[in-house]
Amino acid sequence: MPRNPINIEVLEVLDAIDRRGSFAKAAEEMNKATSAVSYAVQKLEDQLDIAVFQRQGRRSVLTPAGRLILAEGRGILQSTARLANMAIEVATGWEPRINVAVESHQSYPVFFTQLREFLEEHPTVEIDICESVLNGGWDALEQGRVDLIVGSPGPVPLQKGYRTIPLLPSELVPVIACDHVLAGLVAKPEALAAALPKVRRVITHDTSVVDIARSAGLGSEQQSFYVQNIDQKVEAILAGIGVGHLPRERIQQQLDKGALIALDLTDRSDRENFLAWKISNKGKGLKALTGRLSAVLGKKR
């Protein structure tokens, strides 16, 4: 099989000629003789048996075939540059990818803002996000499916080799839809307390695969309606299917508009949650990311 005449060096030559507008200026940028640049183009044309440039007055412009080579070639140049940077970072302790499980109750705007700023500083690191609920984050961390969990609730599993940082608590508010059949009892605490055990509760599935799944919130004697994530839980409660706890920061707008009504229950509380990773994970990317997240989301002492 004949050797492919299109290589990184000739792609760099074509790119420089196109950007600078002439063979001479391209040669100057690349610190080459003009004859060397011309030879590289001529060799490519001879080996492919096509014209890459054509004369238009005093200028050499790309032919349609030349434009195709350059357009695709610039993608190759970008990929090879990125590959080189990734190889350097991996060799110096920077992992190419960080898998993160974020608890469904977490504040997404704050979380993703921090990820954007992290990626602006470290563009070669890939981030893979999944959502976890209750024990699901600890399960994913133990099984090695993720490198970092953000906002997973306590208690912290013991003797697992985890490094943990307490995060700001999530305020979970028990709510009911304004048009639910029992919404009129909100102003009647005794009647509400008597009726509530018969009201269906909306529950987000624990994403744990190995550990025992758990639930949190209202009493277990109620009928249940299960959903996969907090967005579904919000919509299910708004539709009047049942009641449940939701993070205030995710529903403040609905509370302000009166679409959801907070229930005055004695079990309303702030839930302890954590940032956690395995102590054995020494990646520099993980260290930088956890430092950024803990500075913004961590509990102030």
From TrEMBL:
Residues 6-63 form the HTH lysR-type domain. Coiled coil: none annotated. The keyword Lipid biosynthesis does not apply. Keywords: DNA-binding, Transcription, Transcription regulation. The keyword Lipid biosynthesis does not apply. Belongs to the LysR transcriptional regulatory family. This is LysR family transcriptional regulator.
